[in-house]
Amino acid sequence: MSTTRALKAIRGWVAPTTRVEVEELLLQRGDLEFPASFLTPVTRNKKFPTWIVLHGLTPTGRFHPTLEQFTRALASSGATVLIPEIPEWTRLELKPEVTIPTIRATLKAIEEHPLTNQGLCGLIGFSFGAPQALIATTKPDIANRLAGVVSWGGYSDMERILQFQMTGQHEWQGEEYQFNPDPYGRWIIAGNYLPFVPEYRDAQDVADALIHLAIEAGNRRIPSWSPSYDTLLTELAADISPDRKGLFELFAPRSDQEIDTEKASRMATRLTESATKVTPLLNPAPYLSEVLSDVHLFHGRTDALIPYTETLLANTLLPRDKIANSTITGLFEHSERGNRLTSVFHEIGEAATLIRALSRVLSIV
What we know:
By secondary structure, the chain is of the alpha/beta class. The protein has helices at residues 2-14, 65-76, 87-90, 99-112, 129-136, 140-143, 158-167, 184-193, 204-220, 230-238, 245-251, 261-278, 309-317, 344-362, and strands spanning 20-29, 32-41, 50-54, 80-84, 121-126, 146-152, 169-172, 175-178, 295-300, 323-329.
């Protein structure tokens, strides 16, 4: 049965023909009212198991095309899917502290909706939402309502991920790797926390320019390393104080400029120190050992925003008895660029592994 659901979900992803009903809900988090999308299979004459899906840091939020494609495929497998809009994250504000109250508000909405089966829910977090979903399950009142949690393309250690985003370097068990990183992540982190680094307290103009750049990239949906951004980079640099243009270019060089990796590495360390001092929840590592729910981990092998070694690290930090499944696949990635595997047989093998992993996930609710 779970394999059938997995195949339905994959068919819904590859060739979306199954109709899905979408209902707009309004949820309450303290004094804030925020929207959510509630997806159900077109057959609404019975109650369905429910998935909660957290989007990442993107201006499009729950309407990110890839997320919409995924959640519609998930609904077509025979489930209801609730995707809360997290307004702080659509403004690219690094506020992990809103995750837990958002999930609690979403669980309350599920309790009250007539099409949910009132059983245990599943929770899926993407990108920035992935480690925050894991951290949320350290709270017993949340974990007790969940059948399991899925981390897709998440990170585990703040300094490791920022070192990668600044330099392209990452490592696992002493083996070093080099990859061209997607600069989108470092733009957001610096846009939020650069002025908290003591020696850059006057660099608000650089931080503002980087957030502007990240919002533009999120809306354009053109890879952030594309030369098409060079004109915008030049325009933004023109409005920055001359003595800080080099600082801006450290985070956002034009396509014809090279980054000084030693300076970039030092910046990653300083920025991590300041960011995690202001917002400790940005670093998931200290919290992962306290996770109470069963965990399913997924990561794209060629992810250019968050490297797959972050999921390998999660395997060592989570309680061993809570790791239900960990899958590194070549069939999905974080950044939007071509990723066809060169070997047909390898691709078939990857698909079979992914179907088995998805079957295990879909069987939990």
